[in-house]
Amino acid sequence: MAQPVNKAHTTTNRLGLRGNACLIGGLLLLMSPVVAGNQPTEILRQTAMSFLQAQTAKRADQEVEISIGRIDRRLKLVTCEKTPAAFLAAGAKLQGKLTVGLRCAGPKPWTVYVPAQIKIFAEVVAATQPLLRGRKISTTDIMFVRQELSQLRNGYFIKKDAVIGKVLTQNLAAGNAITPKQVKAPVLVRRGEKVAIVAAIGTLKVRGKGKALEDAALGELISVRNSQSKRIIQGVVTRPGVVNVQM
Question: Which distant-in-sequence residues (6+ apart) come within 8 Å of 126 by Cβ?
């Protein structure tokens, strides 16, 4: 004769097996190594941008444009516990194309380099019209134009007073920025010209006459022949026709 089945006992056994399975699964999960996520590339871009913005914040008189290049999305970096530290290579200039280094010092350290570009714009002195070599620059010859400074490899001027009165050493087209190599100080003393020699001996000043042996501008060193002693001495041009000699 068949024995009656105890349904309550069967149900309890099934629940026990399920409970044990869940417990074992949970223990296995805790024992398994945790797989860290990948560092989002957007965070790398934002970190590089914030770093460059801070580095260029003092350029109050200039307009700065910063762009961060693309980062390969296939790059797999373990998520950094803290914000990666940004840095520039030694000698790097905050202008033109460059790279920003990002370093993570976590349990699994890594370093990655992010491409970037910095464009700096400023108002620089330029010619209002075509100017010929040898022309002495006046206020009507110059104006300010907005320029991207990395394009001006030969330098530039940001103050009109720095070029007014200077002489052009080459022809210049209208609208072109004026560079230091394109101008020179006007000649105040010319070769063969009679000059006054002022020699300072302590607080005592002795004056004499001489003859310039070369052309010279303000502040330049020049050779002069003393008219009385016939000696050749050197002095600095301080104003038209005057040479100062330190004794």
Answer: 142, 143, 144, 145, 147, 175, 176, 177, 178
- Cα–Cα distance, 235 to 106 (Å, whole number): 65
CATH 3.40.50.1110 fits 187-246, yes or no: no
pLDDT, tens digit, for every residue of 109-139?
999 999 999 999 999 999 999 999 999 999 9
DSSP one-letter code for 177: B
Q: What's the rounded Cα separation, in Å, for the pair 133 and 27?
A: 87
Residue range 147-179, pLDDT digits in tens: 999 889 899 999 999 999 999 999 999 999 999
pTM for the predicted model, two decimal places = 0.61
**What would the CATH number be for the domain defined by 121-184?**
3.90.1210.10
Give the whole-angstrom CA distance, residue 52 versus residue 187.
45
